[in-house]
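Problem 12. The chain below contains 151 residues. Write out its predicted structure in token notation.
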Amino acid sequence: MLHERLSQALKEAMRNKDQCRVSTIRLILAAIKDREIAKRGDGGDGGLNDEEILQLLSKMVRQRQDSKLQYEQAGRIDLAEREQQEIDVISEFLPRQMDDGEIEAEVSAVIEELGATGLKDMGRVMGTLKSRHPGEMDFAKAGKLVKAALS
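Solution.
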């Protein structure tokens, strides 16, 4: 289970005195705990499965990529490097990311498989992609490709 892998990685980073890794993994575990608390408040069991954790990790990577870009534009290279270090740590727990060619091929295959013809089918196509490739695909890119293909 992914949660256990994160806990083990935290212990190992603490033993190795790797402060960047320790703080990043603690951020991940805190985000998971926040999501579990919110889920309990919504009447759920409170636990997150691996797919939900992967979605959370993907979101954390996207946030850091946005921050890194803003820091680079502002000339704050030190902060941009820190964001990149966090991205590297978080990415270790994500499956291999699909490249642009693989995303395009999968989008085309799902559109053909579902017989999608217009923008009204975009939700079905994206839902299928998300269920088949949690944490593997950049869904922002996929969404643009689906919209372009169905327009």
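Discussion. The chain has two domains: 2-91, 100-150. Students who got a different answer should revisit the alignment rule from Section 12.3.
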